Amino acid sequence: MSRLAAETGAINLSQGYPSFDPPQELTDRITWHLEHGANQYAPMPGVPGLLQVIADKTRRFQGRTLDVEREITVSTGATEGLFSAITAMVHRGDEVIVLDPAYDSYEPAIALAGGIPRHVPMLVDEDGEFHPDWQRIGDTINARTRLIVINFPHNPTGAILSGADLDTLADLVRDTDCYILADEVYEHIVFENEPHRSLVSHDELWERSLVISSFGKTVHATGWKLGYCAAPPALTTEFRKIHQFTTFAVSTPMQCGVADFLRDHMDWCANLPAFYEAKRDRFCELLDGSRFRFRPARSTFFQLLDYGAISDEADASVAERWTRDIGVASIPLTVFCNTPFTGTRLRFCFGKDDATLEEAARRLREL
Ligand code: PMP
Question: How far is the CA of 291 from the centre of ligand 1 (A)?
């Protein structure tokens, strides 16, 4: 959709990246490190300063003190973290539960590891909100289930987990050999004063979890591809067996710069929800009076819009047609689903400057 948007000159609200830059102080720190010798291989698990920042951040926001040496590994974005985790945990013939809609990088990694994906659709309530279907997840778990992949805050639906959700998941896996891979790249973008309930925060689940995050979302720099995996020592050991030979070490000046910035400005993370919530509210206000139905997203920088009152066309063709005809690109929900999905919802990224959101919403209101 980004390519189509570029070809047609459409406003691109499809791919998830901000239209604004990371803070100047952060880029200054990276430049400083580039000019002061941070140009050779970093240690395989990550530079000590960044590992410490991740530990401090996890203690502050999730209440767990991670072992800096044995429980954190810096990765080349979340994508490498997810790939290494799946490759480390899944063996030929193992079943892996994936909730639909799902981010697109899980499935190929599972297939490459010889795993068998078992897709469980999420439930949609009357308000159009998505929830994990714990009953069906429980029914799908069997002796061959090796891994459950979850992603909360959830792309594309903005769903978040409650404390009860975590307890239910703990009940489901208690007497099994399942591990959990938690993709938490939007950990600092949760709205309406809700906390992000990380798997790190849950004593019982933590023992069997690999938790993946990305600084791309947190510091407005998706192109830097800087992420990390937090996991208990035994799982970190497995993770590093793969990470060592896919990536080995992640960009040194980037790690040093992000470490400096977040060490001095940990409040940046605490302020991120308000920053994106204002963008969400602006986008939703601007859509007031449109024919789209929606519930403001609970998290992430994505808003789902239900176009059922405007068209009954399939979402993929609507998304393409509106990119060409009205000049606004979005992503159809079906591309996130392996199970049949017949909804009428498109995903729009509101991580954009006001002028872009205003013009996009003006065009959408005309439909
Ligand atoms: N997981 C989810 C749910 C995402 O939305 C993204 C980015 N679009 C990623 C993982 C990948 O993150 P990174 O760019 O750090 O590899």
Answer: 30
341 has a pLDDT exceeding 80 = no
pLDDT value for 271? 98
Domain that holds residue 111: 24-264
pLDDT in tens, 210-237: 999 999 999 999 999 999 999 999 999 9
Cβ count near 28 (within 10 Å): 13
The rounded Å distance from CA 214 to ligand 1 centre is 7
Which residues lie with the beta carbon below 6 Å from any ligand 1 atom?
A: 16, 77-79, 103, 151, 155, 183, 185, 214, 216, 222, 225, 227
Q: Residue 339: its pLDDT value, please?
A: 81
**349: closest CA among 271, 268, 290, 276?**
276
- 79 C-alpha to ligand 1 centroid (Å): 6
Q: What is the CATH number of the domain that holds 359?
A: 3.90.1150.10
